[in-house]
Every structure is written in structure tokens, then in C-alpha cells.
Amino acid sequence: MAITSRMLGARGKRQAEKLGIDPQRVPPGQYLTERFPVLTVGPNPAYELTSWGFSVFGEVDNELTLSWGELHALPQQELTTDIHCVTRWSKLDTTWVGVPVREVLDQARVRPDATHVMAYSDGGYTTNLPLAALYDDDVLLAHTYDGKPLEHDHGAPLRLLVPKRYFWKSAKFLRKLEVMSEDRMGFWELNGYHNDADPWQEQRHWF
Asked: For residues 172 and 159, what is the distance between their CA atoms, to the nearest angstrom?
């Protein structure tokens, strides 16, 4: 018998109830895991923090390039949140530290006609998001997970964290944000994944 989205969703809610957690925290079609599964397009790219840089460019008045030290000199935020992968696992109460994305967007002085952002990773991965989504209080340039520097398998030295979207939108190995005046699709979006990626709407694929 095929395992359906409804079956996995029921499993996730049973898991939550057994743990004394509100089952409404589990999106449709998701099950809970205590592990942190590793999913990456291609090998982990090498990096050197002494030469590493992060940039914001495009529809901004002040293009930014920040070194590792300059990034850490910006305001930092600790956040505990739930994360959800399109492959149907959810992990609750994950704790991260990083720079709120709105900090770098404010420094870059985003132009009024900007509507979307493309995230670029080392290794060539890309993903797109509405600009408004990056101003949410829970969206970070994350460098620390569970009290330790981010592991290479999970996107070190820096990843985007967008908890309200399926986790492919939380680009690992993040190096650039391009602010755009129109939407363009990223890697998975061009390969059939849903452009919006809302876990609560089960926006997994276009078809």
C-alpha cells in the first residue's frame, strides 16, 4: 500500500501528541524527526573565513560586501523555531543564531521598486523569495545551530534561515543576495518545486 500525505500527516500529529506537543504545530503531510537530515545539491563547497565574503547587490542604493568579521559585528539574534522540509520531515524547537536579514537589507537601502530576492550559494545553488518575506523577524543569516558553529553539512559557514517556507528556501553555503524588481525562479523552482513553498498549504510542487 502506498504511503500517502494524509498518512504521514496523521503520523506526525500522533508523534506530537505522544510528546505532549500541540499537534497543530505539525504542517499537513509532515512527520517529526529528532535527527537533522542532510540534503545538498552537489558536494560541500570549500571555504576560507579569511577570504570569505557576503554581498547584497541589485536594486539597492548601497551595495554591500561584508567580511566574516563585519558580519559578526552586526546585531545578532537567537531564535528557536520549527523547520519543515519538502521531503516531509519536520524538526521542532531548533535554535539558531545569526544576523536578521532585515539588518543587511536596511544597510543596502533597498529601492522602492524591489519585489523579490535571489539567494546565491557557493556551488551554484539558487533560490528565490519575495522581498517582504525576508523582513520577517524569524529570517536570519544563520551561522550557529544548537549552540555551535554551523556544521559544513548544514551549510557552513552561513545559511539563510526562512522557517515559514519549506527548507529548500533556506539556502546553504550562502554568499549573495540579489535584490530584484521582478521574480525569477531558482534551482528547485525551475525543476518543478512550488515557487512559494508554504508548508501549511503543502506547496511542494507546481504539479
From this structure: 4
- Give the whole-angstrom CA distance, residue 158 versus residue 156: 5
The model's pTM is: 0.91
Q: For residue 21, what is its C-alpha cell?
A: 506537543
Phi, psi of 61 (to 5 degrees): -90, -15
Show the cell assigned to 47: 571555504
Angle, CA of 84, 192 and 3, to the nearest 5°: 55
Written as nine digits, the cell of 34 is 529528532
Which position has the grid cell 555551535? 148
Residues 102-132 pLDDT 10s: 999 999 999 999 999 999 999 999 999 999 9
Instruction: Point out the residues of the chain with pLDDT beneath 70.
Output: 1-3, 8-9, 207
User: Which residue stretches of 64-203 are H helix?
Assistant: 68-73, 101-108, 187-190
Cell of 174: 550562502
C-alpha cell at 92: 521542532
CA 186 to centroid of chain Cα atoms: 13
Give the whole-angstrom CA distance, residue 86 versus residue 92.
Answer: 15
Type of residue at 187: F
Burial call 160-171: b when 16+ CB within 10 Å, e when fewer: bbbbbbbbbbbb
Q: In Å, how far are 1, 55, 72, 80 from 147, measured between CA atoms?
A: 42, 25, 15, 11
Q: Which residue has the cell 547587490?
A: 57
Instruction: Note the pLDDT of residue 8.
Output: 66
